[in-house]
Specification:
alpha/beta; 5-stranded mixed beta sheet; 5 strands; about 15% strand
Length: about 220
């Protein structure tokens, strides 16, 4: 929250006010129990965005659906697809939907879930020139980036359910918040710009309409 605000606004005592607001948040109290740390080895950063990603499923959720999470190692940008069926064919179709917008990759890191080990994904990846890198069986922590993202998403879903919020609100906030590792927003590293949101930025002053222009 502090990073997000510092990127756009400032007022005296902003850090103190932000901490006070966050500490009083019902959503934070709901999910603030610490997670037990897991041994991780830091992966070397790719040279540019959207060439190496990790994918995983989160679920089943109380609604009976699953989330397919795709996260870029370079920018930390993530795509989330809600799925009611998680067959290998449906998984490939959802991935192709994402890749048709953002382009094909060099590598995908994934675990050994049954949706990922069938011939459908193998054949699709070979056809698109993508290399599949599988984590060690029974050791999901090896795919650490997406595992951490899944924990964050699970907390956000708990908050959304308790407060009646939409997952898209969280994704927009995530896309526009400087990441603790990169220091940049995910959309800035992926697209070359931080997408616009309701918090005004200095750049908006140059482009904001001044009113109706009449002859």
């Amino acid at each position: 929250m502090k990073r997000r605000l510092r990127d756009r606004v400032w007022w005296p005592g902003m850090d103190r006010d932000t901490e006070k607001k966050v500490n009083s948040c019902d959503g934070r109290r709901l999910v603030s129990l610490p997670n037990r740390p897991e041994p991780m080895s830091r992966r070397e950063m790719p040279s540019k965005p959207w060439i190496e990603v990790a994918i995983d499923f989160l679920g089943p959720l109380p609604c009976g659906c699953y989330l397919l999470v795709v996260i870029d190692y370079y920018s930390r940008y993530k795509e989330v697809e809600t799925m009611t069926k998680i067959t290998a064919r449906e998984t490939v179709e959802r991935l192709d939907k994402i890749f048709s917008r953002l382009g094909y990759l060099q590598t995908i890191t994934l675990d050994n879930a049954r949706q990922f080990v069938g011939t459908e994904l193998e054949e699709y990846s070979k056809m698109k020139g993508i290399i599949l890198l599988r984590s060690t069986p029974y050791w999901p922590q090896e795919n650490g980036l997406v595992e951490r993202q899944n924990r964050s998403l699970l907390k956000r879903l708990q908050i959304n359910h308790a407060l009646g919020r939409d997952l898209r609100e969280y994704l927009l906030m995530y896309y526009t918040t400087p990441h603790s590792i990169t220091g940049k927003t995910p959309t800035e590293l992926l697209y070359g710009r931080t997408i616009r949101l309701k918090i005004p930025a200095l750049d908006d002053i140059e482009t904001i309409p001044l009113g109706d222009v009449r002859d």
